Here is the input.
Amino acid sequence: MSVIYDRVALIGLGLIAGSMALAMRQEGLAGEVTGYARSQETRDTAREIGLCDRVCDSLAEAVADADLVVLAVPVGAMGEVMAEIAPHLAAGATVTDVGSVKQSVIDAVGPYIPQGVHFIPGHPLAGTEHSGPRAGFATLFRNRWWLLTPLPDADPQAVARLDRLITAMGAKTDRMEATHHDLVLAVTSHAPHLIAYTMVGVADHLRRVTDEEVIQYSAAGFRDFTRIAASDPTMWRDVFLHNKEATLDILGRFTEELFVLQRAIRMGDGQHLHDYFTRTRAIRRGIIEAGQDTGAPDFGRTPGAKPTA
Amino acid sequence: MSVIYDRVALIGLGLIAGSMALAMRQEGLAGEVTGYARSQETRDTAREIGLCDRVCDSLAEAVADADLVVLAVPVGAMGEVMAEIAPHLAAGATVTDVGSVKQSVIDAVGPYIPQGVHFIPGHPLAGTEHSGPRAGFATLFRNRWWLLTPLPDADPQAVARLDRLITAMGAKTDRMEATHHDLVLAVTSHAPHLIAYTMVGVADHLRRVTDEEVIQYSAAGFRDFTRIAASDPTMWRDVFLHNKEATLDILGRFTEELFVLQRAIRMGDGQHLHDYFTRTRAIRRGIIEAGQDTGAPDFGRTPGAKPTA
Here is the structure.
């Protein structure tokens, strides 16, 4: 691969930025990668493990002369960061972000984008329940989707260049309108996360069953929920607060649907349950066929380190 | 290992029975393993793949002279099967089951147990979203819990012998009172399954988002739900109908809790959300420390076949 950007500035050095740094280095996609994180501890760790070429102690230093700036901070912090870096951006630079919500980031970041700077919002559909500068790995994006939600007046060449970088890190790109993105993600990610958080919280409150029992006997179902519910609290707080309408809409539908199934259990309507479970099984087949998961049984039992494929 | 039972009869030849057959063969734990399934197709498949030593065409033939009979059929079918095999059981035989609900199985099976036959209800906390005679693998039980809920008058020697078999297949055993088992499992498995089924159903109904989008962009959250929601419909119908009270109790608590979180989102109460998510994260750590999962990020991305450890 050849260099796509001469200097990439990563703002926020968590799982996503760290994985980008490692993937860009592995594929030789950036001349230099600078990084900045608000916390001294994160910067120290990033330096210690050599996460990027240069860890900077200020936002201004990190973005100076960068031709790509990646905002990889919680959604609620994007606007503030953008306001601070705006005066220091090079002419012709591209700013992108990796937030899980798109319209609110556009609303928060857009007004601070200087003339002559390109803003191309994005969202990699990749992650694990781990966070922080040590959580990244070079193959995180491999075969994952990375959605771009460029505004109607976006510069096609700037979008194409960012697209090349993302593809070179192993991801597949698609484009989508920002509000539609937020609805799709409310269904596929945001509502499921809130539900998992809720169920894990219920188990924690239930005093007739001990914590030890819940933990020891966490068979398939609950264990998968706890993995989801272990994700970064700050990131997820911001996701829910910034995709409020779509998430509440989906949760409302979810509750209705749950009540219908609860009623079927209460009334002993086995036919209704069986029909419902047969339909949901077919959706799973679709996901395997679409290549978004494997059919191999797993449940987190596979030993070993970080995924390599 | 040495032979623990001279003849083991497996009634129902799905994921659990198939895995038992393979594990017993691998470790040399049974003199002979017979098998029976109601469906001709399942019996044919089991013969074709040599799942057990002898596949029988009748229940009576399968259980004749068996010193261990394993009921591995859906919870709702246990009573009927037991009524049919009762006259054919050898004196001194042990009958166990692998149902996910224990009190209703005791109520359904218990009355048919002949004098001199031991009944020791059990539940392996192991499974995948696959089912049928081809789904089994010898290591399914390795390092998993297998709960026994013997009645107060159970013969200690018969229980110890069954315990030896289970342990020799790689599982860890524990004993529990049947109704307590049903409550613990409602929290750790039954309610999470119903919730996952519900969320997958919501996605299926939502017409503003296409099925293709839901499937393609099924990031971590939703994908894990679809895996849970792909489990065997008949088995799960029976679980919910036979653990009705405990499941409805937990679902009621879940809904209350979800409403509190929805309200926090609507009111913009970020502190409440952040505190909640921080607590749930700690539970996940407990599960990893208890050895019920690994800390490695995975999300079904690890390629390869069936788990081997």
